[in-house]
Write a structure and sequence with these properties.
This protein is α+β, with helices and mostly antiparallel strands. It has five helices and seven strands, in the order E-H-E-H-H-E-H-H-E-E-E-E. Strand 4 and strand 5 form a beta hairpin.
């Protein structure tokens, strides 16, 4: 683990440089991308796994932004999940950029378990709750599971309902699994 904007390694130190949902959260995206390229040897590979704006985590960030706006001037970490942004960041230093979209399925015992897990262990939502949580203008706590949806299914107030097409069945209790997929992009590129 190291500071993404100042990696403690010599130039061209590695044949392969990897980041799984990490570098995307660096506040200075251009500098972090330049550091990835700097520590990869010429002809080396850089592999990234990043959440996308359209996936479940991207939707969660959109929802949180309505309660706590990001600091001025910071770009969304979800931009690392867009091929166009990756080309902006590393394009001139890459000879071959490949992307693959993958779906990750979160699985939890219940909607309440998901909320507790994300409050406790997922940095962005953990920090949000440390700062007072998501509250309405009147100071009431907001159920941020309401309306978050992905993969044709929705979480509504702690209950997973059927597909958008209106199947209308719901599941709750110990057998509940969050079947909401989150889209991620896997990028690999070869340095020039």
């Amino acid at each position: 683990m190291a500071d993404a904007k100042a990696l403690p390694f010599d130039d061209a130190s590695f044949d392969v440089v990897l980041s799984t949902f990490g570098v995307m959260f660096a506040p200075d995206q251009a500098r972090a991308a330049a550091e990835l390229v700097r520590v990869a040897r010429p002809g080396g590979r850089i592999g990234l796994a990043s959440w996308t704006p359209a996936g479940f985590i991207g939707q969660l960030f959109d929802l949180m932004r309505g309660f706590v706006p990001p600091p001025p001037g910071l770009r969304s970490p979800m931009e690392w999940g867009m091929e166009t942004r990756l080309v902006e960041l590393v394009g001139p230093s890459a000879t071959d950029i490949r992307t693959r979209r993958r779906t990750y399925t979160f699985r939890y015992r219940s909607a309440e378990h998901w909320v507790e897990f994300f409050r406790s262990f997922y940095g962005p939502t953990h920090n949000l709750h440390l700062g007072g949580g998501m509250t309405s203008a009147g100071g009431m706590a907001v159920d941020y599971t309401a309306g978050l949806g992905m993969g044709g299914q929705w979480i509504m107030g702690g209950m997973m309902t059927g597909t958008h097409g209106g199947m209308g069945r719901g599941m709750m209790g110990s057998g509940w699994h969050n079947a909401n997929g989150s889209y991620g992009m896997v990028f690999t590129f070869t340095t020039a």
